[in-house]
Design goal:
Layout lengths: L5 E5 L5 E5 L11 H20 L5 H19 L6 H10 L5 H19 L7 H11 L40 H12 L7 H15 L6 H15 L10 H7 L1 H14 L2 H36 L6 H11 L4 E2 L1 H8 L3 H13 L3 E3 L9 E3 H8 L2
Antiparallel strand pairs: 1-2, 3-5, 4-5
Helix pairs in contact: 1-11, 2-4, 2-9, 3-4, 4-5, 4-8, 5-8, 6-7, 7-8, 7-11, 9-11, 10-11, 11-15, 12-13, 12-14, 13-14
């Protein structure tokens, strides 16, 4: 007999809304294959942590933040290019709302990681994430507040609630359900930590507590919960890349749990995604080491070689820099940094990205290619 992990409740507006039962699911029985996958993935997470000793940790975090932001927003149909995102982050300006939405995701995740030093992962932090995610973009009027009107997940281009694929909790129920989720997150749970993350993500997406931005906030919480549980020390992987790559399966797996109670299938899918993203980060680390070695060899043995190598290595701490930042980081004069950048531009290693005479900003083009898989 299938046990559906929720009940339907008629809202004041006359809709049959889905109210998930509190976590953990009663009678949850994990298959042996899940325990094996969790163990394998925990080993890979340890290798990801060791990657911080091989390349600059800031570069790994930058890479994961950007790729996570682009992928999570793409799932929601918000399309921006890597170049647009990089330029916005240095200029703080874009005419395209899509670019601002993607950048907000990255900012919200950075804020959330810092904020967890001051407060627990719970309702206050979730509202803060949403406030930053929705700042100055569509849906900004509801930023940092739970929904006040019924939302739903549409089927294709049909936006009518009567034809919805899924109608989540009513506005009056959402806050209490989120407080229940907070209690689960901070309970002494028996499930493996990765399984707790899978359960919490399902629960948040099923509650759907905001008018807009639920998918993005839910995916932000995956990374923050992994850090909170000690699985990672920083956002070093990018789970949304996997979810975006398997988008149809992602939505179907969530819906199958609601309708059929297929917890094992959802958890296996989730853990497989984390495992694949760990493997990507490990491969990326080696690719970055190889790239730095190759680019060093491309710098000819000329008078400015030392300053050019120092400038190149500065980019491998943060791939977008001003001459002054390079000067400070590489302990050289601003003039020497500009001269080194000019030589690196000639070698097509560096590129000026603002097209300005003053306030110029440079990017290490091969490094951005590697980060964004261009």
């Amino acid at each position: 007999m299938v046990t559906v992990p929720g009940t339907y409740k008629r809202s004041l507006e006359g809709h049959d809304t889905y109210v998930p039962l509190p976590l953990p699911p009663p009678g949850l029985s994990l298959s042996p294959s899940i325990y094996r996958q969790v163990e394998d993935t925990a080993h890979l997470l340890g290798q990801v942590e060791r990657s911080r000793t091989l390349v600059n940790a800031g570069l790994l975090i930058y890479s994961s933040l950007q790729r996570e932001a682009l992928a999570s927003s793409t799932i929601e149909g918000t399309i921006a290019t890597a170049d647009e995102l990089v330029l916005f982050q240095v200029s703080r300006h874009s005419e395209r709302e899509a670019v601002r939405e993607v950048a907000n995701y990255s900012y919200a995740l950075e804020w959330g990681v810092q904020e967890m030093h001051e407060r627990p992962l719970g309702v206050v932090l979730i509202l803060g994430l949403h406030e930053r995610l929705m700042a100055s973009v569509r849906g900004a009027q509801g930023a940092g507040r739970f929904k006040e009107h019924q939302n739903h997940i549409a089927r294709g281009s049909n936006r009518n609630i009567e034809d919805a694929v899924f109608i989540p909790s009513a506005p009056s129920d959402a806050p209490g359900l989120i407080y229940d989720l907070e209690r689960y997150i901070h309970s002494e749970n028996l499930e493996p930590k990765l399984v707790q993350c899978a359960l919490a993500h399902y629960q948040f997406e099923t509650i759907h507590p905001f008018r807009d931005g639920n998918g993005r906030v839910g995916r932000l919480l995956i990374m923050l919960q992994m850090i909170d549980l000690g699985l990672l020390s920083a956002p070093l992987i990018h789970p949304s890349v996997y979810f975006e790559r398997t988008r149809d399966e992602y939505y179907q797996q969530l819906q199958n749990v609601r309708e059929q109670g297929t917890w094992n299938e959802w958890i296996e899918y989730f853990v497989r995604g984390i495992k694949e993203q760990c493997e990507e980060t490990i491969s990326f680390t080696q690719a970055i080491l190889d790239l730095l070695t190759r680019l060093r060899r491309e710098i000819p043995n000329v008078r400015r070689r030392a300053s050019m190598v120092a400038t190149l290595e500065a980019f491998f701490e943060y791939p977008v820099l001003t001459p002054k930042q390079i000067s400070d980081q590489a302990k050289m004069s601003v003039g020497a940094a500009r001269a080194a950048l000019s030589e690196l531009e000639h070698l097509e290693i560096a590129r000026e990205i603002t097209n300005k005479k003053k306030g110029r900003i440079y990017a290490c083009e091969p490094l951005l290619d590697a980060i964004f898989e261009r």
